[in-house]
Write a structure and sequence with these properties.
Arc Repressor Mutant, subunit A, Tetracycline Repressor, domain 2, 0% strand, DNA-binding
Length: 221
């Protein structure tokens, strides 16, 4: 008689302990990075400060680069981000969905600023930080898929846009560069940028009726 296949045991208490250990490691890493810089912070030092063994750090994050990536992600995708995403998915009104997309972008960029400034300040080498930013941009474009596909399924996208083109427009317009130029360089408030972006997204992506605009009359030849 064949033995029943063993199933992995997932203990809620064990998961909570693992999550707590990850947070200890991240807190220790952040403190050491601020004090000693990227090159001066080692996995062994992080492990000692967190009160765990070095193999535990490697098992949780893989490398020092993995720790840095998680620090950035926690800044970007905190509770405010989750709240905004949930709200965006709960509304069927197209312009409101795009307004939430603008809010999500603001939440990400405000959330990541402290971590990015820390990492630049402590000497994370430019190519490594640039690679993390590129990965984050690809993740951001993929995360926006659900918003665009919902608009397409409801017939709310502009007729001259297919789903991939609409994803490109949403990704580009909600990019970090516009936030940097208008908020950080030109001194716009984050509220003003968010409201402006919501209007621009509706204009660029939605059919006239979905955006609440009067249909554009075609000129007669």
């Amino acid at each position: 008689m064949a033995k029943p296949e063993a199933r992995p045991y997932h203990s809620p208490a064990r998961r909570r302990q693992a999550d707590a250990t990850r947070q200890q490691i991240l807190a220790a890493a952040r403190t050491l990075l601020a004090a000693h810089g990227y090159e001066g912070t080692t996995i062994d030092a992080i492990a000692r400060a967190a009160g765990v063994a070095a193999p535990t750090v490697y098992a949780a994050f893989g490398s020092k680069r993995g720790i840095v990536a998680e620090l950035i992600n926690q800044g970007r995708f905190g509770p405010a981000y989750e709240t905004a995403v949930t709200a965006a998915l709960s509304t069927a009104e197209p312009a409101q969905r795009l307004a939430f997309a603008a809010k999500i972008a603001r939440t990400v960029y405000e959330g990541e600023r402290a971590e990015m400034e820390l990492l630049r300040g402590v000497g994370v080498v430019a190519p490594e930080l640039a690679a993390l930013e590129r990965e984050g941009e690809l993740d951001r474009r993929e995360a926006q898929r659900v918003v665009v596909e919902a608009l397409a399924e409801a017939g709310q996208l502009r007729e001259d846009l297919d789903v991939e083109a609409a994803r490109d427009v949403l990704w580009a317009m909600t990019g970090r560069e516009l936030f940097r130029l208008l908020v950080l360089e030109r001194g716009w408030s984050a509220d003003r940028w968010q409201e402006w972006l919501a209007e621009m997204l509706a204009s660029a992506l939605l059919r006239d009726d979905a955006a609440g605009r009067k249909p554009t009359k075609k000129k007669r030849g």
